[in-house]
């Protein structure tokens, strides 16, 4: 594998990987449920994500690997854990590629009515499959400019919002706290609404893990992942929490446009920005295409790492031109298969697949926390010089993170809308864990017989 990614690529991958359509559009449902308290929800989940990324950054700086958390889980817990975390994440990323292709195609067909949606899906899939089949630098450049556009859009939105809140934007009056304390108050739907908003915000942060996968192919993996993790965490918190604060301050939380048009469009409309809907459609399209690009990359590298560790079909580990091209093709094909299922079997197989990946990111975070607990002691005892990034207040904050994740699982089990996702993900993870354990036993037995 090559080392074609530069530090600027890693920094933007870290920022761009988590800024997707879930923030620009999906956050509307969270605001509708939680009201102004969505700021608390995003701040709470953002804090948890910061802790998880710090743990992952510690391990990835010590042991850079394209397998990231999967390789760390194998090193800390055992091969079955690496197998489970890696293949669950691969299914999540490949399914997400399909969903993002469908979303991007629906935006373009809105601009060009009469053109077939499947043709745009096929075009997007082909473009990003080809970009990932080429040198890794191509992926880095695509993602750098995609992420730069998304970051620029959010930064401009925050500046406009801050000016409007201060009453300095021409044609607007300072809203004060009327939308924060009126319209039912800060907690209009009580703690139940806050819980729904919290669950929505947790899953919106998924995607940060890609930077630790990409770091293994950077010019200086140790310094690269350390810098990217440190700088990304506070910037992402600013973008997410700052955006939510601007939106609920300027727009009534129960405004139907927040869900119908998306919270960013609703806010820009309130500020009288002409063409706000089309501007945000372009940004959302870029966010979706960026996520497709990053997810094909991440899925192919996770698959390659699993195979390199003897946990998958050997053909997926074939590298040509310093790129695991078979893994790229397999990940793209799986994503396209998900698209076809959305057309052919939307009500059973496709919905089952969506439920199955619903809580995978939380499972991955739990593997990260448990792995960090176990590896930190080993590194301190055997190779303390590897600890260039350290988890804060170890082991206390790691245990706090695990308790918070367990609490989120409990909240998911209590909510009808997320209960099915929790159980479906649990069934997939148990099946993978059993498969990984049996594979581990078979390999161990074969090794003894040799």
Automatic annotation (TrEMBL):
Q: Where is the chain membrane-spanning?
A: 12-33, 39-56, 87-112, 118-136, 148-169, 194-216, 236-253, 273-292, 326-344, 350-370, 391-414, 420-439
Q: Amino acid permease/ SLC12A domain: from which residue to which, for each copy?
A: 9-443
Name the membrane topology term. Multi-pass membrane protein
Q: What is its main location?
A: membrane
Question: What keywords were assigned to this record?
Answer: Amino-acid transport, Membrane, Transmembrane, Transmembrane helix, Transport
Stored InterPro entries: AA-permease/SLC12A_dom (IPR004841), Amino_acid_permease_CS (IPR004840)
Which Pfam families does the record associate with it?
AA_permease
Q: List the subcellular locations.
A: Membrane
Matching entries from Gene3D superfamilies are given as: Amino acid/polyamine transporter I
One GO term of the biological process aspect = amino acid transport
GO CC terms on record? membrane
- Signal sequence span per UniProt? none
Family membership noted in the UniProt record: Belongs to the amino acid-polyamine-organocation (APC) superfamily. Amino acid transporter (AAT) (TC 2.A.3.1) family.
Write down what this protein is called: Amino acid transporter
